[in-house]
Amino acid sequence: AQSVTQPDIHITVSEGASLELRCNYSYGATPYLFWYVQSPGQGLQLLLKYFSGDTLVQGIKGFEAEFKRSQSSFNLRKPSVHWSDAAEYFCAVGPYNTNAGKSTFGDGTTLTVKP
Amino acid sequence: KAGVTQTPRYLIKTRGQQVTLSCSPISGHRSVSWYQQTPGQGLQFLFEYFSETQRNKGNFPGRFSGRQFSNSRSEMNVSTLELGDSALYLCASSPGGAEPYNEQFFGPGTRLTVL
After folding, report:
1. Average pLDDT of chain B?
2. Nearest CB to B43 within list A32, A45, A105
3. CA nearest B101 in A: which residue?
4. Cis peptide, bond prior to residue B100, ω within 30 of zero
5. Which entry of A42, B20, B70, B99 is 20 to 30 Å from B49 by CA?
6. With an 8 Å Cβ cutoff, are A94 and B90 in contact?
7. What letters, b where the CB count within 10 A reaches 16 and e where it falls short, cover A13-29?
8. Residues A15-52: pLDDT tens digits?
9. What three-state secondary structure class fits A109?
10. Quick check: A13 and A34 in contact, CB under 8 A?
11. Residues of B with Cβ-Cβ distance to A94 under 8 angstroms
């Protein structure tokens, strides 16, 4: 069965500091990996996705993620955090073929940004 | 293009009642998925509809049902509401083709409170 683990429930960083959110996945085939962000009371917005190719993926809002197959990880990073980045972040894994099943989401990491 | 819309945005019901939530996908998208989000359980997949047929299903009781219309709009119904059904219900649409995997676009959600 596929699963996603986000080990950090809550992270606090200072504005301007760097950020790394961890994500580990378990999937039997080649995974399709995603990071989403959710602001309070809102739906999820896709930050970036990875299926193949360059293992360092660039996304919106200055975020990037690195896929490491040997570690089954897909960590999200940002060099300098802005106060507006405070939100909840979800990592997800999905099948390449939508006929093959559904996406599985991690439990999320809440990011607080200190002024 | 207009995004995914969900109505109503907020709903208050009492135990034992039933509720119907609506989702209008992005124009041209044929797949609609529903998720339940709660603080304790995170994001859980309910079901996915594609071309008016349920394609994937999560592990929810039969009180949760859905349907999709020929214009791809989808409704979700919960009968005999329980307190534990209080949640944010998210709808996500995607083009729905088999390959390559189509990313999901989320609506803002319907906040259901069961008293």
Report:
1. 91
2. A105
3. A96
4. yes
5. A42
6. no
7. beeeeebebbbbbebee
8. 999 999 999 998 877 788 999 999 987 889 999 999 87
9. strand
10. no
11. 101
